[in-house]
Structure formats: structure tokens, C-alpha cells
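=== Structure Prediction Worksheet ===
Name of assembly: unnamed complex
Input type: mixed (protein and possibly other molecules)
Chain count: three
Listed entries:
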Amino acid sequence: MGRSPCCCHDAGVKKGPWTEEEDKALVEHIQKRGGNVGSWRGLPKAAGLNRCGKSCRLRWTNYLRPDIKRGNFSDEEERLIITLHAGLGNKWATIATHLKGRTDNEIKNYWNTHIRKKLLRMGVDPVTHQQLPPDQTNHDVNGAAAALLWAAAAASLGGLDTGALMQAQLLQQLLQAIGSNNSTTGLIANLASANTVLNSSSSFVPNQMNYLQTGYLSNNSNFAEQHVVQQQLTNDTSPGTSSFAAAEPADQLCNTAASYDVAPAGDWSPTQEFGGLLEPMMELPGLCSLEGDSFWKDTSEDSYRL
DNA sequence: AAAGGGATCAACCGCGGTCAA
DNA sequence: CTTGACCGCGGTTGATCCCTT
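=== Predicted Assembly ===
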């Protein structure tokens, strides 16, 4: 598609933080038109602003719009964001439509600066909402055994041949580990642990969003044991198989999330980071991660080509 | 009190989608 | 069908704030 450069590339168009005068000019212009912006491209000239139309739109939608709610996010809002993100992924604009007065940019920032870190501290992958192996929780690398575990899980999930996939994953991760200066001690220990799991993993299936299970949220000293517990938990429920994303009415999730009451008391557990806000999702068996079977299948196929 | 480093968030950038000519 | 214009989105950047040493 042919595409002319944005007006932002014009020489002399102001960038950077907005001044009070500019804000005032933009607000007055839009108010004068009864809130109807019309063409953003033509707006700066009409409003007497030396700004790109895009910049004006951003300033208006993210900051100056009268219905914007500013200030800290409530627990309920956090809860909602996590729930929606679990199903929608980084669809910030879509998520924002379910949080009155919040902008996509604000939610995105809040996710990246607060929620994401909390999830990582809990050992939860903020992308997939699945638990991370403990070693990945604390270290960036040393992931060979973890990769084995997840490869096994993936292969088991899709009924795939685990051999080539895991060899490729292992090779890749070992190369990473060697490339880094990490000690190999933990790596070897985890490989042993992974091997134990793999040897008994014919029905080993990662529970989607299984960090929501109380078993995980309590003290998890051993990753392999943890999955045995989880497998039992999984057997007691009926895991959903459909992808939540666009199909699941988000309002239902909102209602579910909003109806929940506070976290159980007890010894410290990662749940305390959220004051129990994750628990509502336990009531959503249909939720699953973004990466469905096809994701893992593609990963597997890529591995075969290595 | 000053320096350094991490956290935060407003703003920018570039791409994809859509629509009209 | 192609091209160009525009909008909106998600990822990223960088200025500023805040906390620690």
C-alpha cells in the first residue's frame, strides 16, 4: 500500500510535552464543535496548533477527554484487567472498553509497570497466564530444563512426537546457557527434575492458567510434585477447550470478577500480592492461554526444521 | 545534599486495516 | 483492482519523578 509520510514528519511541527495553552486550544476547539472532532488531520490547523493530527488525537483520547478517570486503579479494576488480558492478550483498546474512564494507554502502562511484575514475582507468565517453572521465576536464563518441561507439556497436549521437539528445545536452551555466564549447577539439577517428569508424563498436561489453582499459589517447592497435584486438580474439573478471545462475552467476565470477595487469610503466598484478586478466575473454566494447539504445533514444526 | 538507578507514564513511531476515488 | 489518505492500535522511548545509598 502506498502511504505518504505522516504530517509528524513535517519540519516545524512541534513534538514533546503539551503546554497548557496547547491543551486549552485543543479542548476549546473540540468543545466548540460539540465534541465532534471530524478529521484529526485537519484539526491542528483549524485549532491553530502547530501539532501533528495524530499527536492531537493522542492528547485528547489519553488525557484531555472529559470522561477520563485518573488516579490509582482499584483492586476491582486490576482484577478485571487480568481477567480480560487472560482472554484477549495485549488488546489494550478492547480491554479499555470494559473499564470506564480508562484509556488503552493507561491500562497498557499499568500492566507493564505493575501487574506484569507482580505476575512474574508470582512465577506466572504474564503472556500466557501459565505458571513458569520456578527457575525461570528467579532467573532470566537457565531455562533448558524448563524448556524441556514445557515442550513435553506442549507435545503431550497436541499428541505430538516429543523427541525432535525436545531435542531442538534443549539444544537451543543449552546454547543460551553456554553463551551466558550462568553456573550449570542449577541447569543440571533441573534437567534431572525434568527427566523425572518426562518419564512419567504420558498424560502430563499443563493446566491452563493453572496459577489460579490454590495448590500452585501455596508453597511450591518442587515443580514436578506441583504438577502431580495439579493433575489431580485438573481431573476434578472439566477444563474448557475453546479459545476465549473474541467469542466469550467480556461482560460476563466482568460480572464474575466483580462478584468476588477478598482473599483467604493465611501464611504468605503470592496471592497476597493481589489481595485475592486472582481467585475469581477460578470460576472461569473456559479461560485458556493465547497460545492454542496451533501455536505449539507450529513451534514443533519449526523445531523439526532445525 | 548529591548521585545513581529504577519506576512511571506521556508521547512518539510505525504498521495494519479500512474506505473512497 | 490499485492507490492514497486516514485512523487506530500496540510497542517503544525518553523525560521526569522518586527512592536508595
